[in-house]
């Protein structure tokens, strides 16, 4: 069981590593974008699946990472990612610290609304003030360089993004099986009991929120590198919703879920945008995508990750009981 | 005056919710090696008092002293780390996790080390050891690999106590540990309480009078938020005030 999971993850990364050998520039661009979304979805999964916190303003941290890259490189005239990327991560983490320290005092639906409100605040700063260049956004004017490599070249950026995705996945897998991760799981299941046992749950949740925001900031910075331009949509609630859907679609409670969800979402979007298949309807791809997501939530309550278990249950006549989670079974 | 055996002391604790006085100037002392029972009708303020002692609710007035420290302004997690364990009236376990992981996670509170990311929690010897000991003590060692959510009600109550013990507390506040248990399970739980007495100070909130009079060394009776009597079980049994206010009303 656990071996199958490890194998799946290893094969996925191997396939992603080999993909550029066979793909054209369109494919490389699309998969780069999807991998960036996968990092973003992983960051949200730490909150939603790992800690039980449904954040509906996660695009704020993504967008701040993206804007930080463009604004910082413009103001310094330097494209040295060795300090630009950490700065973007710190900027997103700092906003996450601010948002988290306030929003984590609320719970449930209030938490959802407060995180959304803070994200919209950031959105309007970018949208309506001269800082962020308004609706048009701002262009990246420097050549991003890391260790002598030009990351404006798409195969190079592909490789670097894949590296970041693998590192993020590995770090989160380690984190979730550590004592910190298990404490987050305890908070997700029963926060009251964790407090009674002696865990300062607020500090734990805030730490998770900041780590998640930092990772989302990295994804945002990569997105700015890929597109070479940022605009307020990167902070908007549409994106916050989309990343939440990726996590749900893939299957909450599994890192693989975020990975699979990001790719499934990208595939569905490409499918419904394809004029070859849907003709004139392709213009209204939101409709098709929405229906597909509703169908998947109705038919796959545990997400795509849950399909094997669902099939097994069907075949064994609903007898199988869900196996209790053991500490290592998080990846 | 200060007795080293008093592990937890509440002084003149009051709690008002608007005009309602839920707890009215209650004082009590929990001593090492003894079970102190707290009885009273529904709504007498027993659970509110436990909430105040454990730090879940702040008192309107009064103070709480734990192992010699004034902990009135301490948060619940901080009091727990100092040695205060509590169980709840309803089950507050972690369904979906194994019995062992339930206990281990509770024990982890004593060895949190949240920064050691590269070490798996399942390899944390200190918390595993404490978890195994707590499970063995409560008779759950045969169920370690079971999903806690699938245990019987009685077993869940045992697990609740085991998780409490796993944190290595000096003081145990047990809110109706016998609630909903069958006769046999209740018998086992009473034997366990008797055994836990050694080394711990226990506050027991319980409705079952026979059970209370069997295990308690001291009984406090609350009515409408206030203590109307406190003393040995014999004294309480004989008290006319208690009979009139409480024992007579129930049966």
What does this structure look like?
The complex is a heterodimer of chains A (331) and B (251). By secondary structure, chain A is mainly α. Chain A has one domain (2-315): ABC transporter involved in vitamin B12 uptake, BtuC (Orthogonal Bundle), CATH 1.10.3470. Chain A has helices at residues 2-18, 25-48, 59-76, 81-103, 108-128, 154-177, 179-197, 201-227, 237-250, 255-273, 275-278, 285-299, 307-315, and strands spanning 138-139, 145-146, 149-150, 229-230. In chain A, the strands form two sheets. Chain A has a two-stranded antiparallel sheet with strand order 1-4. A two-stranded antiparallel ribbon of chain A has the order 2-3. With 251 residues, chain B is an alpha/beta fold. Chain B folds into two domains: 1-83 and 170-251, P-loop containing nucleotide triphosphate hydrolases (Rossmann fold, 3-Layer(aba) Sandwich), CATH 3.40.50; 92-168, no CATH class. The radius of gyration of chain B is 18 Å and the shape is globular. Classes of the chains: A mainly alpha (331), B alpha/beta (251). At the A-B interface, helix 6, helix 7 and helix 8 of A face helix 2 and helix 3 of B.
Helix % of chain A is over 70%
What would the average pLDDT of chain B be, to the nearest integer?
88
Q: What average pLDDT do the residues of chain A reach?
A: 87
β-strand percent of chain A reads under 5%
CATH-defined topology of chain A: ABC transporter involved in vitamin B12 uptake, BtuC
Query: What is the count of helical runs of chain B?
Result: 9
Helix content of chain B: 25-40%
What structural class is derived from the secondary structure elements of chain A? mainly alpha
Let me know the CATH homologous superfamily of the largest domain in chain B.
P-loop containing nucleotide triphosphate hydrolases
Distance between the termini of chain A: 11 Å
* Radius of gyration computed on alpha carbons of chain A: 20 Å
Largest sheet features of chain A: 2 strands, antiparallel
* End-to-end separation of chain B: 40 Å
Number of strands of chain A: 4
Radius of gyration of chain B: 18 Å
User: SSE order of chain B, as H and E?
Assistant: EEEHEEHEHHHEHEHEEHH
Q: CATH architecture of chain A, please?
A: Orthogonal Bundle
Number-wise, the strands of chain B total 10
**Which protein chains make the most extensive interface, counting residues with beta carbons within 8 Å of the other chain's beta carbons?**
A-B, 34 and 48 residues
Structural class of chain B: alpha/beta
Strand residues, percent of chain B: 25-35%
């Amino acid at each position: 069981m656990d071996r199958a999971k490890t194998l799946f993850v290893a094969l996925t990364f191997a396939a992603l590593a080999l993909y550029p050998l066979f793909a054209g520039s369109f494919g490389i661009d699309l998969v780069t974008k999807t991998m960036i979304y996968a990092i973003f979805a992983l960051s949200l999964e730490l909150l939603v699946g790992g800690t039980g916190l449904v954040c509906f303003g996660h695009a704020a941290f993504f967008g701040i990472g993206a804007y930080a890259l463009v604004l910082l490189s413009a103001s310094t005239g330097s494209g040295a990612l060795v300090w630009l990327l950490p700065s973007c991560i710190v900027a997103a983490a700092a906003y996450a610290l601010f948002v988290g320290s306030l929003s984590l005092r609320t719970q449930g639906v209030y938490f959802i609304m407060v995180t959304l409100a803070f994200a919209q605040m950031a959105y309007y700063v970018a949208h309506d003030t001269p800082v962020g260049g308004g609706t048009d956004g701002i262009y990246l004017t420097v050549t991003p360089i890391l260790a002598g490599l030009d990351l404006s070249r798409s195969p190079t950026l592909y490789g670097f993004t894949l590296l970041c995705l693998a590192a993020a996945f590995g770090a989160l897998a380690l984190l979730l099986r550590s004592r910190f991760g298990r404490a987050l799981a305890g908070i997700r299941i029963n926060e009251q009991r964790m407090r009674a046992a002696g865990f300062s749950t607020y500090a734990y949740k805030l730490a998770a929120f900041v780590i998640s925001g930092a990772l989302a900031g990295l994804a945002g910075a990569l997105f700015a590198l890929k597109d070479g331009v940022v605009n307020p949509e990167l902070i908007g609630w549409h994106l916050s919703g989309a990343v939440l859907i990726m996590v749900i679609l893939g299957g909450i409670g599994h890192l693989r879920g975020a990975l699979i969800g990001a790719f499934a979402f990208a595939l569905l979007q490409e499918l419904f945008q394809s004029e070859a298949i849907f003709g004139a309807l392709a213009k209204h791809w939101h409709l098709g995508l929405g229906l597909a997501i509703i169908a998947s939530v109705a038919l796959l309550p545990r997400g795509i990750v849950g399909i094997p278990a669902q099939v097994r249950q069907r075949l064994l006549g609903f007898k199988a009981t869900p196996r209790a989670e053991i500490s290592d079974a998080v990846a | 005056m200060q007795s080293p055996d008093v592990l937890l002391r509440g002084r003149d604790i009051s709690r008002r919710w608007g005009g309602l006085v839920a707890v009215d100037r209650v004082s009590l002392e929990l001593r090492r090696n003894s079970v102190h029972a707290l009885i009273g009708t529904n709504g007498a303020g027993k659970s509110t008092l436990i909430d105040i002692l454990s730090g879940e609710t702040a008192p309107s007035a009064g103070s709480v002293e734990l192992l010699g420290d004034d902990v009135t302004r301490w948060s619940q997690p901080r009091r727990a780390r100092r040695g205060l364990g509590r169980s709840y009236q309803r089950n507050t376990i972690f369904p979906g996790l194994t019995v062992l992981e339930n206990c281990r996670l509770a024990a982890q509170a004593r060895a949190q080390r949240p920064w050691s990311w590269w070490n798996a929690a399942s390899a944390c010897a200190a918390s595993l050891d404490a978890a195994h000991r707590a499970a063995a003590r409560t008779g759950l060692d045969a169920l370690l690999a079971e999903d806690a959510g699938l245990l019987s009600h009685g077993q869940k109550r045992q697990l609740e106590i085991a998780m409490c013990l796993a944190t290595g507390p000096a003081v145990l506040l047990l809110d109706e540990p016998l609630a909903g248990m069958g006769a046999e399970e209740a018998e086992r739980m009473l034997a366990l309480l008797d055994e836990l007495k050694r080394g711990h100070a226990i506050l027991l909130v319980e409705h079952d009078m026979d059970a209370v009079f069997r295990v308690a060394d001291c009984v406090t009776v609350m009515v409408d938020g206030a203590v109307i009597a406190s003393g040995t079980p014999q004294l309480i049994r004989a008290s006319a005030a208690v009979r009139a206010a409480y024992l007579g009303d129930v049966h």
